[in-house]
Amino acid sequence: MKRKTLSSLLSLVLLSTLFPAGLPHAAAEAGRTGDVSPTLPVTRSVYETVYGGRAMPANVVSTPVGVNLAVHQAVYASGNEVDWLGPANAVDGNGSTRWSSALQDDQWFYVDLGEEFTINRVTIKWQTPASKYKLLVSNDAQHWTNVLGHDGEIACRGGTESTDFDDVKARYVKFQGVQRAPVDGVFYGYSFFEFEVYNAGELPKIVKGITQIPPIAKGQTEIVLPHVPEGYKVSVYGSDRLPVIDQAGKIHTPLVDTKVNLLFQVEHTDTGQKAITGNVLAAVPGQYTQTDDLNKEPKVIPSLREWHGRTGNFTLTPTSRIVVNPAHKTALQKAAEQTKEDLRDIADVNANIIYGAPRAGDLYLSIDDSLAWLGKEGYLFDVNDYVAITSADVTGVFFGTRSALQILKQDEAHAQIPKGTARDYPKYETRGLMIDVARKFYTIEFLRDYVKLLSWYKMNQFQIHLNDDVGTPFQDGTTAAYRLQSTKYPGLASKNGFYTKEEFRDLQRLGMDYGVNVIPEIDTPGHSRAFTSFDPSLGTGPHLDITKPKTVDFVKSLFDEYIDGDNPTFIGPDVHVGTDEYWGNTEVFRGYMDTLVKHINGKGKHPHIWGGMREYNGVTPVSTEATMDVWHVPYGDARQAIDLGYDILNTENSYMYLVPRLYKDRIDPKYMYKMWEPNVFSDTTLPYGHPKLKGAMLGLWNDISDSVGLSMDDSHDRLFPGVQVLSEKMWTGRREDGDYNAYAAAAERIGEAPNANISHKLQVPNKDGNVIKYSFENGFADASGNGYNGSGKNVAAADGKYGKGVRFGGGESYIKTPLQALGFGWTVSMWIKPDADNPDDAVLLESPVGQVKLKEGKTGLLGFSKEHYHSTFQYKVPAGQWTHLLLTGDNKGVSLYVNGNEYVEKLWVTNGASPRIDTLVLPLEKIGSSANSFKGVIDNLIVYNKAVSFDGMNLALNKHAEASTSEAPHLSPDQAVDGNTGTRWSSSFADDNWFSVDLGEQQDIDSVVIKWEGAYAKKYKILVSGDGQQWQNVKAGDAVIDGKGGVETIKFDTAVKARYVKLQGIERATIYGYSILEFEVYGPGVLNSYLELVKQAEGLLALGKGDNGLRSQLQGMLNHFPYDYESSISPLQELIARLKESIEWENDKTPPVTTANVSPSRPDGQHGWYVHLVTVTLSAQDEQSDIARTEYSLVGGKGWQPYSEPIQLSTDGTYGLRYRSADKAGNVEEARLLLLKVDTTAPTLAATANGSPLTDGTEFTDSETLALDVQATDPVSGIAGKTITVDGKPYAPGTPLRLAGQLGAHTVQITATDRAGNVSQAAISIVVKTNIASMQRLLESYHAAGELSGPLKNKLSASLKTAQKHENKGKLKQAAKAMNDFKKKISKTSGKDVISEAAKAALIADANALIQAWTGNSYDLESTDSTDDQLEVGDDSPDSEDVAA
């Protein structure tokens, strides 16, 4: 950081949080509308005149347009701060003199123009700006009119502020103060360098009127320029999407509808006067429409400028290749090789590099000169079956690979990219980072990794600040450093760290490969103590004596050494020459600046300089052939630099400076994402697309970093979030659909660049974050499941705290792990028993990132080292006894917990007023050391990739918070309860401000932790409430707390139950408000209960008694000490109780006795079988140690089941139930056997007739004879017997059952009984019917049996034949007649006829049944009349129909 007076430094702190409000409505109407930022006004015109804003030359007699009418005119003021700051200084044309008012709000200043002029612009060049003011005009200095109308107030922007208004004729122009703005919390008067009055002519009105252009049609190739009056011409001056609309007005149709901010320049064709419009928004129709069914834009940082999705995904496979267009092999070979290495790191795919045509799954790299309109960094990104990345330049192709790799990294399988097409290109040309390596040295490896990181986020400039001064001497006693080898001036490079020329060349070459321009900076003539220390004749202290030609020649020769020759050191296109904060003669300084700028240009390099042309205002010309870094508005703002003709970078300290522990420690990503991009300065917002604004550069200044212990890891922790968000804002800028939460989630996923894990982050596949767990029970095996097994050297197994440990013997004695380090957010714990004779600096853990030491230096105290910094806890680990150490570290510091909370110490960067940074990246390469290991034993070493706290649960986390005021919208009260110490609440500058948090419900609380930023409360109270209305002080007697700042823990006098907790400010410790990083509320907690249980457990284990299984479980919980203590309390309590019981019962040698009770009490079936559900109830007794378990087995003593409720034997079978019990002493009863036979199921049965199944409703003819039988089965107890009855009469199975004469339904009853006594029964209904054929068969049967003989048989057969004939013809009555005749023949037998009574009865029954079926009646021959249908009976002669047939 550039050094300043204390007030300047404090003003920077203020600027980091306070920004002017937006313009009032009246001011907007007066020509300052269209602001880009909601809080900052836009410079509407960068207005150039032929007179450059100076007084009108004497020979000009026409209307003085563009001439400062106030210069050297009479002025008047309400008062002055001191006499020599009088009002005449503000009209003397000298930007270095100023008027400063008295210290009151109502101060005024006016100028008498000498005569009445038409005016329309006032420009004020501020030194100490107002908050609000008015501009008034008059013709008599008595009656004043507001130039904005309606008594409008102007919200001051500071810097060079121009207010345009409608033409007005006036002689007097007045500044009227309304409200002053505080500087460093102090209200000074108003102060400005110049007060200028103009007639700006018609140009401001013309440019004000240009607010739109004719609509652009789809496919249109050029814009239509806005109309201007005759005598003027208009052209495109700037575009914030040059690849869509360029400065010639040509249109390259975007993929989808796109908005472009344009600037137009209007020029008077005669005078050459020019003015620039504000932004004019142009809507450009796209080639395609992005619809919801297409792939959404993939997340990358910076985000893509244009995207049109397809459907489906590209898939990377193990056989995917990197294919390079053969025509561009030489140009793209390096990019392909780098992409190959990065792809292997991200996706574990070793892709071959091929020069040819792509196929599915490949990455295809190609150069296309026709894409020059995209710029050298722009590229086409086309994803289909393969990914094609095309650009006009290697840089664009390489940046396209970064996008592909970022998308793959975020994919869970690191294999898929959504199909679609993107065009990507930067909004700002320069996107940079500067690191001050002078005041804090960084290794060349760190810088090389940062080149990769910058390229990963498409940042393209890396400035290395090589020399500077420090206040607190370095470790070697020097107070300045120069970090680059010089062969021309041996000894110039600092002995405490420098880069060789070849290292620096290689760094620049690496940058070229990665699309990053590495810019060396040698800062003179200020910040030059390294040179004056080397050669005192060059100057004094931090300043070179540039009045001496020798000094100037020295500086030029130093640049020449690095630029000239066949093997130059500065091989890039740019060189930064510094030139700031020089307090010698201004004109000499300006001449020096001009000399250096021209000298560097003369070497073919482009120079960069620090801005300061207001601070160093003068007449000596300074070449504008340089890029100016606008870094401190009071020294020179963006508008002044542009007016002078410089290209500029936004490096303004309000946004772009990190000065750890002095000014701004961290970037606020959320604020920067939502509120900033490179056109935003604290005093103005430049319009989008301004061609002189090249971009921005984040700067890390290490003014006091070395003295406060800032490491490279600390630096990266501060830089990385800034690089991420600023890359988004510099490449893409503001997005209409911008979503910070989505951005932040992507930033977390995308993370570090491949092959450059600067943060030392490590993810492990377990939810607990357990990285390493060495219990030493199995040597150096890692029990975490991650496979990080160690290997030992000069270590030995020893008795541990629990089981086995490892003894370290001092000197070279260590366990080597597969890991090197673990980044911020880590925890390590161990049991340690040191020997008494440990040496100084005895090491517990070490790797290149640092060491954890048993004894830090000669202090004898626990501590750690990183780089050349050392931190010490005020704790000495006792020798000869076991002590548990838990260290946990994040980016705020390291905390120590000894034996739980027996001793707690937190080394945090916010401790009190000390700026010390006591952080550590955890060294893990070796446990012990390769040179100075500690002596003693370690047991149970556990490492987690998260920071663990034993402070309990923060009840205020993410709860609703309120405050009396907030200094700015982004410093709201919720920022103090979000768990992020990178955000904060800050109040207004008043003592009585308050902050409160609603815990959501009444809770037991006993302490508050306040993590203050620099502005803390000197006196305050902590109040609590149940309803938010009635408040009670947590300290007796309404006591006031004396604040110390840093991290303050306020213990309540007694625990209370409350819902609301409030900080009530009484007195500030600084001129600012109150600023709180985090406000935390805690309850009593359970850690002490846990520690007491641990002591009990250790005591029980030490007895060596009790159940081994319980002891093992309890030992496992102690091995995890003290993690997850809150959830461990209940399991610990249970195990302790169980182990106590097992110890008490160790003398019990008698097994228990188990009794079985069976229900029913005895078999309720036959032959010892149970025919109902059996329930067995077991009960056990033990006279001493009580029952531990009862169990049973139904499978022959195998598969024992715990007995918990009565055993239901619900399945039939024979059971051998074995049962037994064990007591808590471990005695197991010999198994008892209970045999049980259960058959609750009756047999299955079925009937057969003549061997076929007999089913209900089966029909038989009466001519049949049946043989019935029963089929019965019972698989459990077997069949004891079976019976059959027919119509209630016993039937012997298998005997013939004749059906003749048995027409109708009959019931067959079957029964089966099993051996257990279960009975099955079934009733089957059968039906016996007859027909003529059956009757015929009966005749044959009776005849064969001798029951029918003689002529009767044939007579009967003839009747049946006649009946059959009629039936077949459907003549049922005739059939019935024939059947009636059949009956008569049976009744009238002759002497020769023989028929048994049984046969007679059966046949007559059959005949009646058929007659009934055919006629519904019992027909008798005598009762029928002699009609045409009367049946013929008595013979078998054929009827007439038979004859005809």
TrEMBL record:
InterPro entries: Beta_hexosaminidase_sua/sub, ConA-like_dom_sf, FA58C, FIMAH_dom, Galactose-bd-like_sf, GH, GH20_Enzymes, Glyco_hydro_20_cat. NCBIfam families: barrel_OmpL47. Transmembrane segments: none annotated. The active site is at E581 (proton donor). Residues 60-200, 943-1084 form the F5/8 type C domain. Residues 1422-1445 have a biased composition (Acidic residues). Keywords: Glycosidase, Hydrolase, Signal. It comes from Paenibacillus tyrfis. One of its GO terms (biological process) is carbohydrate metabolic process. This is Beta-N-acetylhexosaminidase. GO terms for molecular function: beta-N-acetylhexosaminidase activity. Residues 1421-1445 are annotated as: Disordered. Residues 1-26 form the signal peptide. Belongs to the glycosyl hydrolase 20 family.
